């Protein structure tokens, strides 16, 4: 066990875990933030997607000891205008079914719009194909990303 | 704590269990016993608003859903039915799960509390409207008494109660008085022509969308009680294996591991959090006794199943003279379809929480079958039924996996709690690999189809099924089996929508030591494919158009099948559309769970197998309660069906399930998702379910399109074998 001071969503959180513990479990069991989900543990499904210094990361596969002083952002800390547009578009189209993968989907979709304000279908495929949705809400995810892009365009 | 515990006004937990917990739960035991004794009883239908609704001073109306919400929409559906008759405003509606209490919350289609078979709306359509109508009548009576005016002069609209005198109020202020009144026995329901919510577009939005976009939606895995232990169980790598011996020394040395205990299913590691539990489990040394384990591999199963399929099975249904007709010759077609084991692989792996203090137990999880689970937990812990409480939580998908005929998860949960002793909350977690390799798959199945076409007419048809029973050995067997066979193995095969004079459906029910379970659309996952790919093949041999040929075979006797088939043909412009070069279309129509779905698929071939560009879908589910949820379930069913038809299989290597995660069990991803267009056929029939019926037609429609491209219909699924590895 070792103590880590993680910067999550602008706050410093002390977690006492084994250094090899994936960031996901430091966030969930250590910091008690439950919005970031466990789906596969091997960076295949994207349910655990967070930002580390603004970059999307599969938190299930990043040891907490590698995070250092980096800023971690989870679904609970999303507050950019892109994120709000994405969430609003998701609600407008009733995208979620079971909802379990959607934190990860929202993180990836927001990251996409941060980089590319007007993504094509192909851009969406490339940016979002690391996020599995077993309910297959993909048709609406695609439509909601286009919808959010349109909102942001103003 | 869930919303029904928090209710402070009209409803408390005490009034929820009105009549006394002992009485209610005592009746539950009787009912459950009757279920086991196969004694059908006319269910007494509970419509008491104070058991289903929590109306708060802020005017919110929370509907307690009998069915679990895992994406298919019962929260929104139940609230729609109530709000319609209550004349509530949609913005005041909320929903949560009803706790385990079969007397109050039984599924009227099952007689126990549980979700499955796409029954949520079908079994609640009248009941939940009556709840809303009764509540409305009681609120009006309460307002009339308060205002001292005749009830008949009061109107209710959009959540506002009004009297001509100008008096006006909302539900919250009359709720306490209203809910104390006796509920009317037979409240009057609206004529469908005056519906404002049911069947209307754009009025009703899902109640759970916002929380599912901001991380607030609360699932079982999110339970994080102060002294809770996270538990992982090391189970036998082969089904039926037992622990011969184990050494937990290294596991106990892992920081964060609290204890290690043997339980009937394996070795349980108790830790402070998931990661130490996982590390602890990896440090266990276990010797397994495989003497009674299933040790066959997929190739051996295929050989056995294939051999059996060539011999006559037990006849499920026969008419005319199949053998005689075949003997007359003509264009004989014989094909074999092989269907793999499939894991459900819901995004949230199995998990459950239980706190046992020695005298009572409180479980919280995404429980799909509360009644059997309730009985199982009380039995393992030796507690009276009324000392066990189950609160149902949102689940991250199920596709059938959480509806456990064996109650295996509830039993293991209770065993894990029992092994460490009372006082500690335990959260039993399955990793993705546990979930994927843990069995309870869609059964491995073979269909051998034989038929003959003479003079452009299908004269004979037979379907020999080899499959494993889902219900055998469970409490469902006594209630559901027909002539010793499990109908969920042949549903859809023994009664097709097509008139063929000489018909036979027979079956070999095989025992395999791999636990199997219903998987989104159950038997129709394979019977739908077998029937619809085969009819297409025979129609091709007869020189008929796939749509026209099917309609002819329905012989005007299957209006709802024909209705969706015509509707999808029109939607896709089947007759006139010029399919682009390199692409082809296929069609299929399947009835499942009283819902009729037809789909047209357009695809082309790539190095990675078929690329499905677009799917057109027509659905007839009777009265369409929530059109947008129906569309979303068709979209999801198509995606779910497509991913498995193309890519997914669980194979066995000397009894060990091979695929353990999404790297070896390939799931559909967004770049593989087709465009989808759905039309809902208008109907005044009773509403039926939509959670499962979108799945079955997709596979055969893909196969039929592949045949049109000249590749042929896949005989063994998945279409892209080895895609996973």
Task: Please give the CATH architecture of the largest domain in chain B.
Answer: 2-Layer Sandwich
CATH class value of the largest domain in chain A: Alpha Beta
Number of helices of chain A: 5
Oligomer: heterodimer
Main sheet overview of chain B = 7 strands, mixed
Total strands of chain B: the figure is 26
Shape of chain A: globular
Model description:
Chain A is α+β, with helices and mostly antiparallel strands. Chain A folds into 2 domains: 2-77, Ubiquitin-like (UB roll) (Roll); 81-153, DNA polymerase, domain 1. Chain A has helices spanning 23-30, 81-92, 102-115, 121-128, 138-153, and strands spanning 2-8, 11-17, 49-52, 55-58, 71-73. In chain A, a hairpin with a 2-residue loop joins strand 1 and strand 2. Chain B folds into 3 domains: 3-212, Aldehyde oxidase/xanthine dehydrogenase, molybdopterin binding domain (Aldehyde Oxidoreductase, domain 4, 2-Layer Sandwich); 220-291 and 350-429, 2-Layer Sandwich (Aldehyde Oxidoreductase, domain 4); 298-341 and 440-708, 2-Layer Sandwich (Aldehyde Oxidoreductase, domain 4). Helix content of chain B is 31%, strand content 23%. In chain B, a hairpin with a 2-residue loop joins strand 9 (257-263) and strand 10. Classes of the chains: A alpha+beta (154), B alpha+beta (725). The interface between A and B is large, with 59 and 65 residues.
